[in-house]
Every structure is written in structure tokens, then in C-alpha cells.
């Protein structure tokens, strides 16, 4: 661990269990992962493999039972609830499949929300610039119900990026979108990485979406079982997905 840049997020032997006794499930089983600044990682794996749990734990939205999570150099285990919330507001962005905008607020008010919550005032023009960055300069006064799904997700991305967080987590961000809007959202995420050095971790089941990432982690039964690096293409990712899904039941059996 010498001379290495601080990771945007690091997981060290992170374990998360749900339930007890017979019904206990190990959703994450001693997961190690580093997400370097300015990189885009896709997380894939069959349903129930632990993708959402990994994202929620890494974002400090869910606690780990064991192991360590470090966001931008700060270990989460020593933090009070209050300081964890503060860290999350300042350093972490989150984009969900279902957009999760506040329906009563305009696009501009939604984007300003993280700063309002942190009792900070956006700099003059900051919200407008952020909306322009996601191609919505004309839509600042629109409410979510007046925007298409793709536009709502772009507002959600602007809201997640406005604080320039150390890391943006995205949980199936294109899952509710048609192919064209999905492609726009992925292009935006890629641009945030290339132009602003944003770190992104995105859960997806779609090889075409994952092909926008620099690297793909494959989960099975709560563990990272494989990794593709060097901006793998959709075909290589799809092949790997098929292989991982065939292997998963066997590795699972060995550990149950
Ligand atoms: P994925 O996102 O890959 O579908 P999840 O992280 O949602 O996987 O789930 C991993 C495992 O943990 C699954 O077996 C799931 O049933 C279980 N799990 C997830 N959340 C809970 C919860 N709140 N209570 C009980 N079990 C859960």
C-alpha cells in the first residue's frame, strides 16, 4: 500500500448477512474491491448475487457486518450516523433505476436539493450549468411529470453530480428507459468520467450498458468471481456473463 493514490472507494473483506439461523443469507462474502478515481466500473452478476447490496454498502446506505468500507480516504466504521449522512451528502452521488426525483419540485429545484440539504447555497449559475451539461437547459422550470423518462434520469444525474462527489453509484440507471434514452444516459455518464474525472460504479445486467465502463466486475453468490479490464466490448461481456451464470450454481453449492 505504498505510493498509491487514495481510492475513491475501497471495500476490504466486506461481509453482509441478512436474516438469522436457517434463513440466513450471506449477500456479500468477504468482498475486496478498489474503485480508482476517474474510473468507470460496471458490476454484473445474476439476480441475487449481491450487486445491490454491494452498491448500498459501498455508498454507506447499508452497513457491513464485517470488513471495512473507505470512501475517499474516510473509513465508514468510525463514523456516527450524523457524520455518515454528512459524508454521503458531500462525497457520494446516487442514481436509481426509478429516477427518485421529488415530484413537487422543478428540475432546477431537484438539482439544487443536495446543496439545500447540506445547508449550502448553489453558486450563481451552478444549477443552470449542471442542467446544460446534461442537455436540459430549456427545462429548468419543468416538474418531473412534464419530462420524459430519459429527461428525468438526466435531471437525476445532474442532481447526483452537482456536488462533484468522489463517487457516483448508479443502480440499473437505464433499466426503465428505451434504448435511445438509455444510450444518452450512458453517454452522459461516460462524459462525466472522461471530462471531469468522475468515478462511477454502475450495476447493470445489460452488456451494452456495461460496455461503456472501463472494467466489469462479476459477482456470484456474494463474491467477486471475475473481472474484465481494458474497456471490454459488449460481445466479450455477454460471453463472460453467460459463463459466470453457468458457473454460479456450482460455486454456490460448494459454500452452502
Ligand atoms: P442482486 O442485486 O444481485 O439481485 P441483492 O444484493 O439484492 O442481489 O441480494 C443478495 C442476496 O441477499 C439475495 O439472496 C437476497 O435475497 C438477499 N437480500 C437482499 N436484501 C435483503 C434484505 N433486506 N433482507 C433479506 N435478504 C436480503
Q: Would you give an account of this structure?
A:
It contains eight helices and ten strands. It is α/β, with parallel strands linked by helices. It has one domain: Rossmann fold (3-Layer(aba) Sandwich). A six-stranded mixed sheet has the order 6-7-8-3-9-10, sandwiched between helices. It has a four-stranded antiparallel sheet with strand order 2-1-4-5, covered by helices on one side. Residues 250-256 have low confidence and may be disordered. Bound molecules: adenosine-5'-diphosphate. Adenosine-5'-diphosphate (ADP) binds at residues 18-19, 25, 27, 45, 47-53. Adenosine-5'-diphosphate binds at residues 18-19, 25, 27, 45, 47-53.
Task: Offer a concise description of the structure.
It contains eight helices and ten strands. The protein has helices spanning 51-58, 81-91, 107-117, 126-133, 149-161, 179-196, 207-210, 234-255; strands at 9-18, 25-35, 40-44, 66-71, 74-75, 92-95, 167-171, 200-203, 215-220, 223-228.
> Uncertain runs with pLDDT below 50, 5 residues or more?
250-256
CATH 4th-level superfamily: P-loop containing nucleotide triphosphate hydrolases
Q: Residue-averaged pLDDT, rounded? A: 93
CATH architecture: 3-Layer(aba) Sandwich
List the domain count as a whole number: 1
In CATH terms, what is the fold-level topology?
Rossmann fold
Number of strands: 10
